[in-house]
Amino acid sequence: NQCMKDHGFKYTWGAWNHETGNVYTYSYVAGPYTWADFDTMHTTGKACDATWRKQANPHLKEETSAFMVSQADMSYMPTDADKDPPPAMIGVVYFHLKNGHDAHEAFTSAVKKIAAGAAKSNWSGHFQTDEINYGGEGAPNYIVVFPNKNWADVGMEANPSLWKMMENVYGKAEAAAIRKSLNDSIEKSSSHIDSYNADLTYTAPK
Q1: How distant, in Å, are the alpha carbons of 28, 137, 138 from that of 65?
Q2: 144, 126 in Cβ contact below 8 A?
Q3: 29 neighbors 13 (Cβ within 8 angstroms)
Q4: 27: enclosing H helix or E strand
Q5: pTM for the whole structure
Q6: Is 122:87 a contact under the CB 8 Å cutoff?
Q7: What is the tens place of the pLDDT at every residue in 1-39?
Q8: How confident is the model at residue 15, as a pLDDT?
Q9: Alpha-carbon span 183 to 110, nearest angstrom
């Protein structure tokens, strides 16, 4: 971070500690940026490559990278949430879909209906859905992120519950059909909790 600051690196990288799952894992998230931004980021970041290799690489077990593409119609977030500071904690759910076009269509259709239902009912739960591009072997197809204020907020269920909200909006039969379609599209899923680490975050100069 100090090296990037010294070189006037223009892109903020937010740091997250994994509080559950593999607690020796850290995630860094940058963006939203354009594809062209990553050309500039790659070029200007080279100034700190030697520092990274010398000071960080000796401690790494592995490192992976992926692009996340935000899906607005598959998300339900507060108005102007992108202008707010990062939440203190997030729940992160990885979704690996079954092979084939049908599973992908079923998943996206179901999540779009959930987002639309949440907006229509002013639901108390919020979530951001991102599609994973170029994540490599074993990467999930989608990541869903739930913002939280603290551990108490993590443990607090939305009221009404997700599928009760869906029943209220779509009716019991259609909500059950959406739930089945969603479940049938998923090969596997996993989840963990992250906390925002301001000390390890690099904030670009304005």
Answers
A1: 9, 11, 12
A2: no
A3: yes
A4: strand 26-30
A5: 0.94
A6: no
A7: 999 999 999 999 999 999 999 999 999 999 999 999 999
A8: 98
A9: 10
